[in-house]
Amino acid sequence: MKINYEQTFPHYSRSLDFEQLVRDYPPPPEYFQSVMRMPRHELDALKNKRFLATVKRGWEIPFFQKHWGAVGLEPGDIRSIADIEKIPPYTVHDIRKSLERNPPFGDFMGIAPGGDNPIPLVLHTSGGTTGLPRPMLYAPQDRETMTILSARRYAMQGMVPGDKVLVALSLGLSNGGFAARDCLWKYMGAVPVMTGGGSSTPTRRQIEIIKAWGVNYILGFPAYLRHMAIVARDELGIDPHSLGIKALGSHIGVEDRTKIEALWNADCYDSYGTNESGMMAQDCEFKNGMHINEDAVLLEIADPETGKLQPEGEKGTIYITTFYRYGAPQIRFNVNDISAIMPGTCECGSTHKRLEKIFGRNDNMVKLRGANVFPEAIGVAVAEDARSNGEFFCMVDRVGEDARDEMVVMVELRDPAADGAAVKTDLERRLKEVIGVRVTVEPAAIGDLDQHTGTSQTSKIKRLLDRRK
Length: 469
Known about the structure:
Blueprint: H1 18-24, H2 30-33, H3 40-58, H4 62-69, H5 92-101, E1 122-126, E2 134-138, H6 140-156, E3 164-167, H7 176-188, E4 191-193, H8 203-213, E5 217-219, H9 222-235, E6 247-249, H10 257-264, E7 267-269, E8 271-274, E9 278-282, E10 290-292, E11 297-302, E12 316-322, E13 331-339, E14 341-342, E15 354-355, E16 360-361, E17 366-368, E18 371-373, H11 375-384, E19 388-399, E20 404-413, H12 420-435, E21 440-444, H13 450-453, E22 464-466
Parallel strand pairs: 3-4, 3-5, 5-6, 6-7, 19-22, 20-21
Antiparallel strand pairs: 1-2, 8-9, 9-10, 10-15, 11-12, 12-13, 13-16, 14-15, 17-18, 19-20
Helix pairs in contact: 6-7, 8-9, 9-10, 11-12
């Protein structure tokens, strides 16, 4: 290989005006004295300005040019945030088509690696319907603002400099653990202890680390927080209350936070974020709804069937519009999460609107121990195995005292004489690679799954039963 000594290399420190960034999106403590309590008329004016800048950026990206042009929208048609309903929403299905049109990163990204003027990029992924997850590239503007928004969350939930924070979130391709790490050491002065989930560091070892190193804050999904406490209590003989955990940061949704708090004797805080959008809303100390970072994102609540915007207090699917993203801005992205905007204000003094809990999803994706799992992705892996006939059905339950999420994937085998134990072992390993979490495979005879899928009875075949609901 011949080295080009004239090659341009991007320096992260020069890729962004950091002083301007923190003026635009103040982290704590500046956030508490400024944007958090900004009068509504000023906040609305700021949102309008940033919304129009985002729409302008959208017109520079082929995906939005196609999507908006298909309904006759033209540059200049959107003159204020009041015109937002003229913009057609889009879904993950549109993103998948974009990736198919322009692999590997799609035409929705707006940025690409390399080139004559390269910029530093980070890649993380969201769920996918094939063996490969959906990639997302983050420019410095995107990544740093997301990090600041996370810092607001942690500061509102009692984290302070010097806290030792166990990050029991995914350390794979997804954003979770790495986004937390970026925030903790860059903007919080807290120390990230990067154990990841139980597949990265055994749960017993995580408890030992908590005790030995004086960890006092834990980030994790509800089922794993429960599991950790029960392992400490029942397997190690350690009272979780004795570990001195002051708070737990999670994504609670419809879970009962009081049971988790009782196990740890610590406050458990809710928040709402996605791989693409970062931290969009978070509990404050009063745990009375999640405060939306309205200077950075707009969350609309729409009727899942009609798309009509819902009034405060009414449930619907969430449309996301980001104000800060340069690469792949989201403009009315129907994420299919179900929630509502809460009426009234919070006693913490924030002027920002609040999001209720996330009640679930409007499509067939399920959350399994923090991972986004699509039945379609499971189907691709099952179909790859020549010993199956491609028929499968998934059941999700909560199991045991710690109410951990478990999925059973039933798979029909072509040959009754096939080695079911070998199929089980091989498919469990393959599904762990594809969807990122471990599931249980149960081999079945041909036709056994028809009672669940309805394959012989209807064109609307069922592949999933979530019995947690």
